[in-house]
Model the fold of this input.
Amino acid sequence: MSQLSKVEDEILSQVKRFLKHINSNLPEGMELEFEGFYRRGFFVTKKRYALIEDDTIVAKGLELVRRDWAPIAKKTQRKVLMAILRDGSPEKAREIIREVVGRIRRGDVELDDLVIHTQITRDLSEYKQIGPHVIAAKRSLEKGRRVERGSIVRYIIVKGRGPISQRAFPVEDAEGMGYDPDYYIENQVMAAVSRIMSSLGYSTEDMNSLSSGERQSSLDAFF
Amino acid sequence: MEDYRMVLLDIDYVTVDEVPVIRLFGKDKSGGNEPIIAHDRSFRPYIYAIPTDLDECLRELEELELEKLEVKEMRDLGRPTEVIRIEFRHPQDVPKIRDRIRDLESVRDIREHDIPFYRRYLIDKSIVPMEELEFQGVEVDSAPSVTTDVRTVEVTGRVQSTGSGAHGLDILSFDIEVRNPHGMPDPEKDEIVMIGVAGNMGYESVISTAGDHLDFVEVVEDERELLERFAEIVIDKKPDILVGYNSDNFDFPYITRRAAILGAELDLGWDGSKIRTMRRGFANATAIKGTVHVDLYPVMRRYMNLDRYTLERVYQELFGEEKIDLPGDRLWEYWDRDELRDELFRYSLDDVVATHRIAEKILPLNLELTRLVGQPLFDISRMATGQQAEWFLVRKAYQYGELVPNKPSQSDFSSRRGRRAVGGYVKEPEKGLHENIVQFDFRSLYPSIIISKNISPDTLTDDEESECYVAPEYGYRFRKSPRGFVPSVIGEILSERVRIKEEMKGSDDPMERKILNVQQEALKRLANTMYGVYGYSRFRWYSMECAEAITAWGRDYIKKTIKTAEEFGFHTVYADTDGFYATYRG
Amino acid sequence: MFKAELNDPNILRTSFDAISSIVDEVQIQLSAEGLRLDALDRSHITYVHLELKAELFDEYVCDEPERINVDTEELMKVLKRAKANDRVILSTDEGNLIIQFEGEAVRTFKIRLIDIEYETPSPPEIEYENEFEVPFQLLKDSIADIDIFSDKITFRVDEDRFIASAEGEFGDAQIEYLHGERIDKPARSIYSLDKIKEMLKADKFSETAIINLGDDMPLKLTLKMASKEGELSFLLAPRIEAEE
Amino acid sequence: MFKAELNDPNILRTSFDAISSIVDEVQIQLSAEGLRLDALDRSHITYVHLELKAELFDEYVCDEPERINVDTEELMKVLKRAKANDRVILSTDEGNLIIQFEGEAVRTFKIRLIDIEYETPSPPEIEYENEFEVPFQLLKDSIADIDIFSDKITFRVDEDRFIASAEGEFGDAQIEYLHGERIDKPARSIYSLDKIKEMLKADKFSETAIINLGDDMPLKLTLKMASKEGELSFLLAPRIEAEE
Amino acid sequence: MFKAELNDPNILRTSFDAISSIVDEVQIQLSAEGLRLDALDRSHITYVHLELKAELFDEYVCDEPERINVDTEELMKVLKRAKANDRVILSTDEGNLIIQFEGEAVRTFKIRLIDIEYETPSPPEIEYENEFEVPFQLLKDSIADIDIFSDKITFRVDEDRFIASAEGEFGDAQIEYLHGERIDKPARSIYSLDKIKEMLKADKFSETAIINLGDDMPLKLTLKMASKEGELSFLLAPRIEAEE
Ligand SMILES: [Mg+2]
Ligand SMILES: [Mg+2]
Done:
């Protein structure tokens, strides 16, 4: 930690030196300002980046939070960002993804981590777009539970054929039903992390091999 | 003869015995919040003529029997110019005669011929709406149509601002619900079943012909009575500001039409006048004399960047919570079915409460812009930011003795539209993970470029002998002195903002700090708008040369800064217009 | 002081065409013996090694060893500007790699060198039990054949044949070639098709490719100039099938 | 058991290039007489018929009739992989059409057959009063000429000339060709330019095209192999102009 | 009445290829002496002048002067349809420019003329102190060389050499050519690379380009037909650098 502070101190003193030099040559009223120091960061394109300041992640345009993500997607994304930004290890990020994908495939994830929360904002009969949360809410109604405008529906996507919407079940009814690994891997975990990984140079193919469970090895094992 | 004080809410003019009379609508906030209409008969409209031959011009103008001629020394894009100030008897004379004046052999051009009379008054008197005015006057009997609690005062002395801004304004929001079982609401056949009203005056209610078991519902006999009750509330409460959401294009036109069909009287104006809806470009604008009507929908479109601007969406964005939503095309079913109607009542009340909350949050900034730009809140809330900046400059031009350029002709406008200045410098980010990243930003890059390089249409020159700042890439030359008009104005704005921020730091009063913060925010918005105006096709001070020079210098400064940063060991990984991120490489 | 002249720019172009699709930046080591480059791609899947001996060049001077870091994309842009009859001259100055083409006109390009910490990778130590040669063009054709059905390719070698194959959702493809070499131990491994495509951009380096293959081991592909004065080789990590 | 061998893969390629731009899936009927295909595009505007006789093939075995349904896009991907000197061998197994190219290497492709109900369309019975021949390339050029101004083309034939023309917003185009044939009854009709483009992809099938034309009738375009061992023909519905 | 015939359509095509990338619409002046065109691009950066003398044409009739306004994009679409051995015939009728290609078939195109007020620009009066000739292809190559590093190009000429150069963020490029002409006063100026690219599309007009250059003055580029019967020239405004 003291080593880290030393680097930061050196950089910040150089920042001070640089700003003093540059501002002494700028016209009156114009000033270049120091806006922040970040231990690590990556940029995807303009207006899309993530930086870490202490243990706080500053992110822009990366769709880091979507209300229909399950806890396992949010947690994995958070861990991936920390592996990259705090630990400086994209390789560790890949291992995190591989490990989560493996647990999902083995049926090794608790239901609480797979629950998707969505709020019902209108009468169920008024939804034109019948999404999974609407199907799950209707199933709750059929079971006698009260569902009205403002209710939070908690559902999971179970195994089976057919559209995802049709496989949305209230979590209260899902005990014993198997969740759909492909849905949680592709639509939740990989959706949450793939943009981040691609910004670090991992190709679509690299990410596909992670989610398929088939592994593209690296040469590291052969050195 | 008495001294009067009132917060100026709105302004217009009427004609009495062929004389234009400026009407100032205000409330005595220091006293009993009494509404006052002040009449000022002393003001006359005028325009400027730029002569080719001064004496010949005066001679030709004499023959037109104008009210008054006066030679003045002014500046036209910085150059000293003798102009003739031509005063008219009545504002309606201006459009009739100005073309004849322009066509005179001895007249090179006419200026400031299209400034509305009431705006001219605000500019020349240096008063601004939503500030307290003081003047001497004589109270006279109000005309019979004026509502009984409104006092009418004839101004006898000078009208001036006390410098005190209005706070704690009375706000009332309203919203109508229509029963339309067959498609889009049609005022010819679909009735209004509810009008909700809510405000900071301790009033939250839904007026309807049903719902008497609900404590917030006020029951009336029929739709006509519903409309008249709404009018009664507005007249009785006399809010300073009446707000709606999409009320310019829907609620007020609908109410007006239904009232006409039903024979209901809707004389909401302080002077007994009716609701009046005018066309403004592609939109409508609905005015009520004395009560400032603000439609929050266009305000929110300007203020926020959202995918949709429904009331529900805006409310969620501002307050982080969802409000009640019902499907608009099926509201009539809620009205027709007893078991659903209560929900409709709650929805209607929720609409006006939400509208009021939005108003409380967003109006302070608009009030501050009203004071800055100096035009009525009714107009400011419907103006694009570029228009706000332009009217601000018109006011400043008067103070500086600078002639206001004319708006572009249709052909000028068309040829300008195709051109666009090159934007800021962007260095595409380097992919991958970077360590030890430093972020640098220029503070007010473009405004300070305008000021430091004296970028203005009046300083732009072809003169190779002048001492000039020369723009990179394009080679445009801007004289180093004197200070250009726009740079001077922006400089004032930035200085004032710094002063206010210092004052904020020194204040212990939370309310004062809040007020000062809104003020500096308004100045910031105005300054940010100002540097873009050179590129607006319709702008009076449009100058593609100035717009291109600003961004060219912007690119030059950030590129040079990045290069210097390299010498200090900072490698830029991403840059965008006025800032960059760099890693330190020692 | 470094200076190297060559009558034929194609060698440089074909080498760096492959290298630039694998790595963004490389360190080139200049010495009296010649020009050398070792690089590992960002994801550590492909390793590339290039060696161009001093004898390859018509004129070669390097009086003290030097390491230069170059952006491969910029380098390729310049090399693509060479004409068939141009003489190409490489040199360095403070901060630039200089490439000059002498033909009808003298065209000089300076590429900014990159100031980065660069740790040269060492090649992994791998023992292979078999080695065989295939025409380079056949390898390229096999990749294009398999590309229509799959994004991965299985390479197999047995005592008689080298086989490239793939199975996809819409079809299968298989290419068999009689290699006529001694293979002691049959081998089979799966590789990413995209990664192999990157390697096979070096098609003017040599007419044949030497392949070393082992069960689930990296693919080693070696291109040697007929004159022995240059060598370009690649290592590609295998794809490991999931346990079922 | 079905097996067909051919020294020249181009015939297959050029035929299916046109067919695949007209229909996504086709049923191919395999019999002792040869290979036959009839297909109607999704919007029922273009009809295509292909016949390749057993005699066309160097070796042809089909001991019992068979119908296979093939995705034309996948088939084209494979046929494009043929080399000039490859010998091509077609066969079927349970669930696949197998295409093998024998050259320097043996390259085997299996295309999944589609399991669908398929009703073979019958060609409409149309009597034409005239028939003439034009060079295939001239037809292609006419389409490209008209393409710059219009998306539809008018074909006319009279006793001396075949004329292709169009009028557009920015200009007009007209191509006249002296056909030197007997035309009993002049004819005129309008067709979609895009649809004709699809048909004209079969440009290696024959050097000339036989055209049958009638007033507001479908265009019939027939390509016959010089050897008579194969025929590819199209019917294209006219565009009917609205009554003015 | 206007009619002009030419055995070689390439002259027209190469001229208008350059012109159409500079201006959207041109006015062509037809007279007994020939065909003439002067145009200034929308942003007033590039001026183009074309002159094709009556003698250039195999047959030329213009019994009274005429001015036609043509959309250059539409004109280019038609000219691109010419074949190598076509004879091209230009004429006008009420509202159209007619272009006919006679070859295996007769192909007639009518391009709508534009009804606009058009003020023909006059060329600026510029005195140059020097003039030299360079191979056209060398100029094109220089542009492509500089394009990899910069979007602007510096042209310099001194007593021995013509030099094209640029400095970019990632590298520099410089092309030197010994012109072997008398240059009284060295000159240097900077131009937009994109604008020069537009001019250099006329590469079949002449094998060499005549260049006039002056310090921070417009570039004048002139292409003369070997037969003297046609001339195509351009003026390009310089880019002015800011004082440092
Ligand atoms: Mg509403
Ligand atoms: Mg409502």
